[in-house]
Amino acid sequence: MQHQKMWELAEWIDFLSQVDIPVLKQTARNLSALRQHEKNLSARGVAHIINFDPMMTVKLLRHLQQQKHASQEHEVMQVDQALMMLGLDTFFKKVPAEPLAETVLSGQMDALSCLLRVIHRSNRASTFAVDWAVRLSDMHFEEVRIAALLFDIAELLMWCFAPVDMLKIRALQQQDRTLRSNDAQERVLGFTLFHLQSALALKWSLPKLLITLMDGECANQQRVRNVFLAVNLARHSANGWNDAALPDDYADIGKLLHMQPEEVKVMVGAQEKN
């Protein structure tokens, strides 16, 4: 879907708060296959599938927060816990794996390709983040993983529902490699994806911890730095291991993990040639 006029930020927030969030075809297929084998059906098995799809993950968390009871003391941001609270029957009825992103973007292969690349990047970021959290003896590493996975959820949603505008932003940055992402987004959308995401997180009442872990103003916290550095490494390495920003990433990650930059390069599997 592509709107004829430029929407204001508030209009996008309202729209994205009501629309069904698309999920990957592979996610829907895997959930359907798992459901056909009821004897092997478990929250852990379902969570394993959902955990690879940031859109299905946030779809589940948004639904859970909408159904949250006033008596609920603890916020839930882990997929397996969310499934256990809802129950698998309720999950399959109330949070169906539809619509499919591939259907929403039917006939728009460029946008779909970009969407899939961002999802791949999000999964890489989540893998980096959980690995470093374990190295830092973070007992709640799954929370860090989820934050890194969902860090670019606003970008994913806009690829689904504003593909033409997102392609314009991409074209601007390809024409001018020095153009900052925020500036390109402001020029085309009238707002940044960061502001959209922050507003959506509040509108959807997502867990406060999740919001904190994705908040750059809290970067003095070790867990937040972990998330941001994982996202940066995934984003920059997606351009190839020769990306000019990577040396700074290695240095920053080294400070986080008390390692030398060269050790970081080996750890993350950096390759000098693409």
Key terms:
66% helix; 274 residues; mainly alpha; single chain
Detail the topology: elements first, then pairings.
Layout: H1 9-18, H2 25-35, H3 43-50, H4 54-66, H5 79-86, H6 88-94, H7 101-104, H8 109-135, H9 141-149, H10 153-161, H11 163-175, H12 181-189, H13 193-203, H14 208-213, H15 222-237, H16 246-257, H17 261-268
Helix pairs in contact: 1-13, 2-3, 3-5, 4-5, 8-9, 8-10, 8-15, 9-15, 10-11, 11-12, 15-16, 16-17
Structure write-up:
This protein is mainly α. Helix content is 66%, strand content 0%. The longest helix has 27 residues, at 109-135.
| Main sheet overview | none
Count of strand segments? 0
Pattern of helices and strands? HHHHHHHHHHHHHHHHH
User: What oligomeric arrangement do these chains adopt?
Assistant: single chain
